[in-house]
Design brief:
Elements (H helix, E strand, L loop, with lengths): L1 E3 L2 H13 L4 E6 L5 H13 L2 E6 L9 H6 L4 H10 L4 E3 L3 H4 L20 H4 L3 H16 L3 E5 L3 H14 L4 E5 L19 H7 L1 H14 L5 H14 L3 E9 L12 E10 L2 E10 L2
Parallel strand pairs: 1-4, 2-3, 2-5, 3-4, 5-6
Antiparallel strand pairs: 7-8, 8-9
């Protein structure tokens, strides 16, 4: 496994791999890797010949400086885990390396209203920071495939739109949310939870299951279902930002006739802001 820290070294390695006819698969991360990330690496191996993982804590997507400083960084453990997953190349750049002017895509990145909805409403500028760094990584690495998790579902839809808008010749692959035994989705921010909060946290997933059951039973009052779920979370000690029932294809408002639905939730528990979702495909 090669570890590089500069764009020049990275491109040298990528060019060499491509000259050998290898299909390059990128898995972008911010490090502090957990089982969810490792599932992405496993899937990446099925999508191409060589797997590249980036570890870069992107300052532009944090809305508070203290959140950026508190984000857990575990580079030694991350590299050991990536070695075990047979990752071929790891890119660990400094901020100045990624955001150098010459690494900016020539085409301006379009902005969409979706960036300001759901999580974007509560974290202004968050998705603008994500699309900026992802566009730069795509421009720098030029992978054939990029792999993202479905846990960050709004991010996944926004990145798919970015690829379409910018004309990147990159296939976006997604991997289902990975969960702990009690249903809590793996997340780097789970480390912010106290022991008692960790026990409570499973109610996020339980709430999603209740909403899914209501929809499968034919309930049509989506607004009432969302409010009921919000109230349940609040009574359980959460500070919910939203529970939303949306069209899974583009995150537009869903109706009873929508055949592919995603139920999304974001809620604070102590210092941790937890997000999760469930997909519902109607037959």
């Amino acid at each position: 496994m090669q570890v590089v820290k500069t764009v020049a070294d990275l491109r040298q390695q990528i060019n060499s791999l491509k000259k050998q006819g290898n299909k390059i698969v990128l898995v972008p991360t911010m490090g502090n890797l957990h089982a969810g990330h490792l599932a992405l690496m496993k899937h990446a191996h099925r999508c191409g010949d060589r797997v590249v993982c980036s570890i870069f804590v992107n300052a532009l997507q944090f809305d508070r400086s203290e959140d950026l400083q508190a984000y857990p960084r575990t580079p030694e453990q991350d590299l050991a885990a990536l070695e075990d997953e047979n990752v071929d190349l790891v890119f660990m750049p400094a901020h100045e390396e990624v955001y150098a002017e010459e690494h900016k895509p020539k085409q301006d990145i379009p902005k969409h209203a979706l960036n300001e909805q759901l999580c974007g409403k509560y974290r202004p500028g968050f998705f603008d920071g994500i699309v900026e760094v992802v566009a730069r990584l795509f421009h720098i690495i030029n992978p054939d495939v990029a792999v993202f998790g479905e846990k960050d579902y709004q991010q996944l839809i926004i990145i798919k739109r970015l690829v379409q808008d910018m004309g990147f010749p990159i296939l976006i692959e997604s991997v289902a949310t990975q969960r702990e035994e009690d249903g809590l989705a793996y997340s780097s921010r789970n480390s912010y939870l106290s022991l008692n909060e960790r026990v409570q946290a499973k109610q996020i997933y339980e709430t999603l299951l209740v909403v899914k059951t209501q929809l499968e039973a034919g309930s049509q009052d989506f607004v009432a279902i969302e409010k009921q779920a919000m109230d349940q979370l609040a009574k359980a000690g959460f500070r919910p930002d939203y529970v939303a029932i949306r069209n899974a294809k583009g995150l537009e408002s869903a109706s009873y006739g929508t055949d592919f639905i995603v139920i999304l939730v974001a809620a604070w528990l102590g210092k941790a802001r937890l997000i999760d979702n469930l997909l519902l495909q109607k037959r």
